[in-house]
Structure formats: structure tokens, C-alpha cells
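hey can u check if this looks right to u? its 265 residues, i copy pasted from the old doc so theres a chance i mangled smth
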Amino acid sequence: MTGLVKKLLIGASVVVGASTMGAIPTYAASLTGIQFNTDDIEVFYADDPITALTDDNPLSNVELGASTEDPLANVGFSGMLGGKEVKVETVTAADWAIFGDQWLTDFTAAYSELGGLATTIGNGIMSMGATRFGDPNVGGFTFDESTGEYQLDLIGHYNVLNAPYLQVPEYASMVSMLNLMLGGNPLQVSEIAKVTIDGVENYAYSFSATDTGFVAPDGSSHSGLYSWTFQGEPVQSVPEPSTMLGLMAVGGLATLSRRKSRNKA
């Protein structure tokens, strides 16, 4: 084996080894160019709304339509994410007329153990509509460039049955009955956000929460993190320089080997 061939082999093995030692990283893109179409917002656990939406703190969030909790128009923010224009907004009674049937189907499926009562509870939540569930607390909105997945995080109650508006005498028997039927498990229902990605409207919600490890002074708010995902298109990655060098080295070695074989023929 010639000295040149040895160098090519060593160089290729070192470069390829360096490229394959670690897993391919996941690149999460954050919102840019954020603009709010309202000043009716409230910021929690951050100095400003932009920071709340783009930092690494899963608890920091922005409540949309914070003052009235009864939005008559879609209010929120727009920006760029994953190379697409996106909007995240409150939902109104008009929106419930569009997605309400699907939401109720999803709710009853998530809580099949409630039987026929699930429809009753679901209709009760829908009657609250924009008032209680249409002014989302948005924790963040990201895009995974490697998978093409968008993820919207919503901050809410880990267990809706602990929400302050249910801690009144008129709901006491219902809460007690639901606790019994759920076997002590939480009733998890996120608020809903209207999400537009590249002109396509979606309604973001979830019935599964992660405990944030935090409880607001009211004893329930901000205790649950709900995530909604939407599948977009991955960003085509460009090979890293080290990978390109390795391929060039292997290619050079193959060319040299072919030449050597022909010379022997």
C-alpha cells in the first residue's frame, strides 16, 4: 500500500468517524418578526411578550385577549416560522361553529370512561366557548427543521376540575362525581388557539398535559403544559463540511484504486 493510499484511508476514516460519532442534531427554529395585532395581552414569567414566546422557559407565556376573556374578533400575533408566515389567535363563537363538532368528537373519545356524560360535559365546555377556552396562553411556537413538525405549546390547568371557576357550590356535586368517574385522574382540556400556517387555518387543542411543576396563586392556573403539533415539510439539509471531506477522500481512494488496477492489467 502506497503512502498516498495510506493517507487517504486514514483521512477518510478519521473524517467519517467524526461525522458519525454523534446523532444528527435536531434544529428547532423559533418565531421571528413577531407582530401583535392587539395590546390586549398579558405576559407571564418573562419581561416582554417576544421573550415569552421565544425563550427556553416552557412556563413563560402570553395570554391573548386577556382583559375580556370574550373575544369578538381573532386577536393575536403573526410572524415567520419555518420559512412560512404564521398566525396564532384567539377563537370566537364563529370559530366554534367551524371546529366545535370535531372538538366534541375528540373530547368524548379522550374521555370514553365518562360514557354518555362525556357529551354533556363537552357541551358544557363548548357553551363556555370563547369565554373560558378561547383566549389561549401561548408558551411558544417552534418548527423542527429535520422533521418538518410545528409545535404550539399552550399553558393551562393540569386538572380543569381544580380551576377556580369550578370551585363554587353550584358545581361541587358535578366535580365530585367526575373525580369519582375518572378514578382521581385529572380532567385535562387545553384552551384553543386558531393557528394559520402559510394560509391554512387550523385549531390547536389537546387533552393531555404535562405537569409544569408550578401552580399560580389561584391554585391551578399554569400547572399544565399542552402541546399541539402539525406536520409540515422538513428543510432539506446540506451535508456538513466534514462529511463532504470524507466523501471526497473515499471518492479519491476509489479513483486511485481503479487506476492502479488498470496499470496492472
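The longest strand covers residues 137-144.
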